[in-house]
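ok here's the first one, seq then struct tokens
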Amino acid sequence: MAFVVLNLKTYVESTGQNALFLLEAAATARTNHSLVFCPSPLDASLVARSRTGGQPLLFGQYADANSSGAFTGSAPLDQFKKLGFEGTLLNHSEKKIPHPQIQKTVEAAKKLGLKALVCADSVAEAKKVAAFRPWAVAIEPPELIGSGVSVSSVQPELVRDGVSAVKAVDGSVKAFVGAGVSNRSDFVTSLQLGAEGVLLASAFAKAKDPEKWLKDFLG
């Protein structure tokens, strides 16, 4: 079983009621793999109320380590927990945060029983953030994000080296890959290179028929 992380970002096609359309596509997918759904923070409550049966898993696109309180503009982890989310994405190339903050948020997530998926833009960064012992680390070269050109096809050595780097630090930390993943071939190749999951966004969020696209992707 692998993990397929569906990052909705904040596209017009993936927010508001459109997020629920995509949620239904993910919830009805018949697969042995585990789906992780990452809605816009503004849609977190809407999506949480609409999910049934605990599938797919819900992750925030970002979260802060602080608890609820006098923290204007923050996205407290405990509020995601109360909504029924299972984890959060951290340090995406579009939302980079300092490493000390990553470590603090990972530790806070663990205390709440939440999973932290930390993105890394290089093998070197993957090794550094793996030392914080998050649930998973995802290697995503930023230049390929949204390109439609998968890292597994043009930089297979980065996937292999990234997975090896993460596992060398802590074998229990899962190693994912992302950037340009847009079809089943990319998915299969990523797994063959050692990845335990993939991240993708626009290919699913902007698909004309997301249910069919996801069915074809999962095989």
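and now the second one, same deal
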Amino acid sequence: MNISDVLNVKNIKLNMLAKTKEEAVEELADLLVQDGAVVDKAQFMRDVWLREEQGSTGFENHIAIPHGKSSGVAHTALAIGRTQHEITWETMDGSDVRCIILFAVCLVDQNTTHIRLLSQVSGSLADEDIIAKLLVEEDPQKIIELLNSETEDMSA
């Protein structure tokens, strides 16, 4: 799967104002609403918080991957944000979060596309070079290319 199918530069915000987990998810959800991926923000937000209650989506190395499978999503999409402030989030390594990758998954994709996408992004995040670049890259297009380069390696 090509990350470009679910992520575009309009859904990457490298100077988020959020200071809390809730503000961060809200700020990224707004991008997905503007893009037309999320058509019922209230429903989508409920589904994201329901998922968060099942276990934190904090990853490691300052990354979090919140996600919601929701009827409020018209088509599966990602939004990526980087905060100006470290955000407290329950992560695997205890680090505060600076980069959030929000998954909005439509119900029709919940079993196939969602799993592939999650494993693809997780695979990218296993590469410390990719994480280091994600935390400093200023060009949204290069962030998409970073996540795509890992996929091409996996499918080769």
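notes on #2: The domain at 3-155 is CATH 3.40.930.10 (Mannitol-specific EII; Chain A). The two ends are 12 Å apart (CA to CA).
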